[in-house]
Hints:
Layout: H1 4-10, H2 13-18, E1 21-25, H3 31-41, E2 45-50, H4 72-79, E3 84-87, H5 92-97, E4 105-108, H6 113-123, E5 127-130, E6 143-146, H7 154-165, E7 173-176, H8 190-211
Parallel strand pairs: 1-2, 1-4, 2-3, 4-5, 5-7
Antiparallel strand pairs: 6-7
Amino acid sequence: MRYERCRALFGEDHEKLARTKVLLLGVGGVGGFCLDCLFRTGITDITIVDYDTFDETNQNRQIGSEAVGAVKVRRLAELYPTVTPIEAKVDAAWVENFDFSPYDIVLDAIDDIRAKIALAHKVWPKLVSATGGARKIDPTKIEIDSIWKTHGDPFARKIRYELKKSGFKGDYTALFSPEEPKTATKGSFVAVTGAFGLAMCSAAVQKILENGDKSR
Protein backbone atom coordinates (compact mmCIF):
# COMPACT_ATOMS: atom_id res chain seq x y z
CA MET A 1 0.00 0.00 0.00
CA ARG A 2 1.23 3.45 -0.92
CA TYR A 3 1.17 4.99 2.57
CA GLU A 4 1.75 1.81 4.55
CA ARG A 5 5.01 2.99 6.08
CA CYS A 6 3.60 6.42 6.89
CA ARG A 7 0.68 4.75 8.66
CA ALA A 8 3.15 2.55 10.56
CA LEU A 9 4.78 5.74 11.85
CA PHE A 10 1.74 7.94 12.50
CA GLY A 11 -0.87 5.29 13.32
CA GLU A 12 -4.45 6.57 13.39
CA ASP A 13 -3.12 10.12 13.20
CA HIS A 14 -2.37 9.52 9.54
CA GLU A 15 -6.10 9.91 8.85
CA LYS A 16 -5.91 13.46 10.25
CA LEU A 17 -3.19 14.24 7.74
CA ALA A 18 -5.21 12.75 4.89
CA ARG A 19 -8.18 15.00 5.73
CA THR A 20 -6.17 18.22 5.98
CA LYS A 21 -6.58 21.04 3.47
CA VAL A 22 -3.25 22.77 2.86
CA LEU A 23 -2.50 26.08 1.16
CA LEU A 24 1.10 26.33 -0.05
CA LEU A 25 2.28 29.76 -1.18
CA GLY A 26 5.31 29.65 -3.44
CA VAL A 27 6.60 26.52 -5.17
CA GLY A 28 10.22 27.37 -5.89
CA GLY A 29 13.28 25.87 -4.26
CA VAL A 30 11.65 25.58 -0.83
CA GLY A 31 7.98 25.16 -1.73
CA GLY A 32 8.54 22.48 -4.36
CA PHE A 33 10.28 20.14 -1.93
CA CYS A 34 7.65 20.89 0.71
CA LEU A 35 4.96 19.92 -1.79
CA ASP A 36 6.71 16.66 -2.64
CA CYS A 37 7.05 15.78 1.05
CA LEU A 38 3.40 16.58 1.85
CA PHE A 39 2.18 14.55 -1.12
CA ARG A 40 4.34 11.52 -0.30
CA THR A 41 3.16 11.63 3.31
CA GLY A 42 -0.47 11.34 2.30
CA ILE A 43 -1.55 14.99 2.43
CA THR A 44 -3.04 15.33 -1.03
CA ASP A 45 -5.62 18.14 -0.71
CA ILE A 46 -3.11 20.89 -1.45
CA THR A 47 -3.66 24.20 -3.19
CA ILE A 48 -0.49 25.77 -4.58
CA VAL A 49 -0.10 29.44 -5.53
CA ASP A 50 2.67 30.97 -7.66
CA TYR A 51 2.87 33.15 -10.76
CA ASP A 52 6.34 32.29 -12.04
CA THR A 53 7.58 30.08 -14.88
CA PHE A 54 10.52 27.70 -14.81
CA ASP A 55 13.76 28.85 -16.37
CA GLU A 56 17.16 27.24 -16.77
CA THR A 57 18.58 28.87 -13.64
CA ASN A 58 15.98 27.01 -11.54
CA GLN A 59 17.34 23.62 -12.52
CA ASN A 60 19.94 23.47 -9.74
CA ARG A 61 17.25 23.34 -7.04
CA GLN A 62 13.60 23.27 -8.17
CA ILE A 63 11.38 20.24 -8.72
CA GLY A 64 9.74 20.33 -12.15
CA SER A 65 12.26 22.80 -13.58
CA GLU A 66 13.25 20.53 -16.46
CA ALA A 67 10.11 21.93 -18.13
CA VAL A 68 11.72 25.27 -18.98
CA GLY A 69 9.09 27.90 -19.78
CA ALA A 70 6.24 26.06 -18.08
CA VAL A 71 4.09 27.80 -15.47
CA LYS A 72 5.26 26.33 -12.18
CA VAL A 73 1.87 25.59 -10.64
CA ARG A 74 0.57 24.01 -13.83
CA ARG A 75 3.60 21.78 -14.25
CA LEU A 76 3.50 20.70 -10.61
CA ALA A 77 -0.22 19.94 -10.91
CA GLU A 78 0.75 17.49 -13.66
CA LEU A 79 3.34 15.85 -11.42
CA TYR A 80 1.04 15.80 -8.36
CA PRO A 81 -2.46 15.15 -9.77
CA THR A 82 -4.51 15.93 -6.64
CA VAL A 83 -3.07 19.42 -6.34
CA THR A 84 -5.15 22.51 -7.13
CA PRO A 85 -3.07 25.18 -8.93
CA ILE A 86 -3.67 28.92 -8.66
CA GLU A 87 -1.58 31.06 -10.98
CA ALA A 88 -1.22 34.33 -9.06
CA LYS A 89 1.41 36.59 -7.56
CA VAL A 90 1.24 36.43 -3.78
CA ASP A 91 1.61 40.06 -2.77
CA ALA A 92 0.00 42.08 0.03
CA ALA A 93 -3.06 42.91 -2.08
CA TRP A 94 -3.61 39.25 -2.98
CA VAL A 95 -3.36 38.25 0.69
CA GLU A 96 -5.86 40.93 1.65
CA ASN A 97 -8.44 39.72 -0.87
CA PHE A 98 -8.00 35.93 -0.69
CA ASP A 99 -10.32 33.70 1.36
CA PHE A 100 -8.13 31.57 3.63
CA SER A 101 -11.02 30.09 5.63
CA PRO A 102 -11.25 26.74 3.76
CA TYR A 103 -7.69 25.79 4.68
CA ASP A 104 -6.49 24.11 7.87
CA ILE A 105 -2.89 25.26 7.49
CA VAL A 106 -1.08 27.92 5.43
CA LEU A 107 2.54 27.39 4.37
CA ASP A 108 4.53 30.44 3.35
CA ALA A 109 7.47 29.82 1.01
CA ILE A 110 7.51 33.27 -0.62
CA ASP A 111 10.11 36.04 -0.51
CA ASP A 112 7.95 39.19 -0.47
CA ILE A 113 8.24 40.76 2.99
CA ARG A 114 5.09 42.88 2.66
CA ALA A 115 3.11 39.77 1.75
CA LYS A 116 4.63 37.87 4.67
CA ILE A 117 3.58 40.61 7.08
CA ALA A 118 0.07 40.65 5.62
CA LEU A 119 -0.12 36.86 5.98
CA ALA A 120 0.95 37.04 9.61
CA HIS A 121 -1.80 39.51 10.42
CA LYS A 122 -4.48 37.55 8.58
CA VAL A 123 -3.76 33.86 9.31
CA TRP A 124 -1.08 33.60 12.01
CA PRO A 125 -2.80 30.84 14.06
CA LYS A 126 -2.45 28.43 11.12
CA LEU A 127 0.74 29.81 9.55
CA VAL A 128 4.14 28.17 9.05
CA SER A 129 6.65 30.47 7.35
CA ALA A 130 10.14 29.99 5.86
CA THR A 131 12.79 32.69 5.57
CA GLY A 132 14.66 30.89 2.77
CA GLY A 133 18.03 29.24 2.33
CA ALA A 134 19.89 31.15 -0.38
CA ARG A 135 23.68 31.66 -0.04
CA LYS A 136 24.07 28.89 2.54
CA ILE A 137 25.52 25.38 2.35
CA ASP A 138 24.77 23.58 5.65
CA PRO A 139 21.24 22.14 6.02
CA THR A 140 21.96 21.06 9.62
CA LYS A 141 21.86 24.73 10.64
CA ILE A 142 18.14 25.01 9.88
CA GLU A 143 15.99 25.71 12.97
CA ILE A 144 12.23 25.69 13.61
CA ASP A 145 10.94 28.05 16.29
CA SER A 146 8.67 30.98 17.08
CA ILE A 147 9.17 33.91 14.69
CA TRP A 148 10.11 35.94 17.78
CA LYS A 149 12.93 33.51 18.63
CA THR A 150 14.59 33.56 15.22
CA HIS A 151 18.21 34.71 15.31
CA GLY A 152 21.28 35.12 13.12
CA ASP A 153 19.20 35.50 9.96
CA PRO A 154 19.01 39.01 8.41
CA PHE A 155 15.78 38.21 6.56
CA ALA A 156 14.12 36.99 9.75
CA ARG A 157 15.37 40.08 11.56
CA LYS A 158 13.74 42.28 8.93
CA ILE A 159 10.48 40.35 9.28
CA ARG A 160 10.52 40.76 13.08
CA TYR A 161 11.14 44.49 12.66
CA GLU A 162 8.25 44.89 10.23
CA LEU A 163 5.93 42.81 12.43
CA LYS A 164 6.67 45.03 15.44
CA LYS A 165 6.31 48.16 13.34
CA SER A 166 2.89 46.99 12.13
CA GLY A 167 1.68 46.25 15.65
CA PHE A 168 1.52 42.47 15.24
CA LYS A 169 0.88 40.72 18.58
CA GLY A 170 0.51 37.09 17.50
CA ASP A 171 3.02 34.31 17.00
CA TYR A 172 3.68 31.58 14.45
CA THR A 173 6.20 28.91 13.49
CA ALA A 174 9.16 30.04 11.41
CA LEU A 175 12.01 28.20 9.71
CA PHE A 176 15.37 29.95 9.50
CA SER A 177 19.11 29.39 9.40
CA PRO A 178 21.67 31.41 11.38
CA GLU A 179 24.46 30.16 9.09
CA GLU A 180 26.68 32.96 7.78
CA PRO A 181 26.07 33.60 4.05
CA LYS A 182 28.82 32.21 1.83
CA THR A 183 28.35 34.71 -1.00
CA ALA A 184 26.89 38.15 -1.63
CA THR A 185 25.19 36.97 -4.82
CA LYS A 186 22.06 34.87 -5.36
CA GLY A 187 23.91 31.59 -4.94
CA SER A 188 21.82 28.60 -3.90
CA PHE A 189 22.35 24.94 -3.02
CA VAL A 190 19.59 22.35 -3.18
CA ALA A 191 20.87 20.63 -0.04
CA VAL A 192 19.76 23.73 1.89
CA THR A 193 16.74 24.97 -0.08
CA GLY A 194 15.41 21.42 -0.35
CA ALA A 195 16.03 20.82 3.35
CA PHE A 196 14.07 23.99 4.13
CA GLY A 197 11.14 22.53 2.18
CA LEU A 198 11.36 19.18 3.94
CA ALA A 199 11.63 20.91 7.33
CA MET A 200 8.57 22.99 6.47
CA CYS A 201 6.66 19.80 5.66
CA SER A 202 7.71 18.32 9.01
CA ALA A 203 6.67 21.48 10.86
CA ALA A 204 3.31 21.39 9.08
CA VAL A 205 2.71 17.72 9.94
CA GLN A 206 3.54 18.36 13.60
CA LYS A 207 1.25 21.40 13.72
CA ILE A 208 -1.61 19.44 12.16
CA LEU A 209 -1.24 16.63 14.69
CA GLU A 210 -0.88 19.02 17.64
CA ASN A 211 -4.05 20.87 16.61
CA GLY A 212 -6.07 17.67 16.53
CA ASP A 213 -8.62 16.51 14.02
CA LYS A 214 -10.50 19.45 12.50
CA SER A 215 -12.11 17.44 9.74
CA ARG A 216 -15.70 18.08 8.94
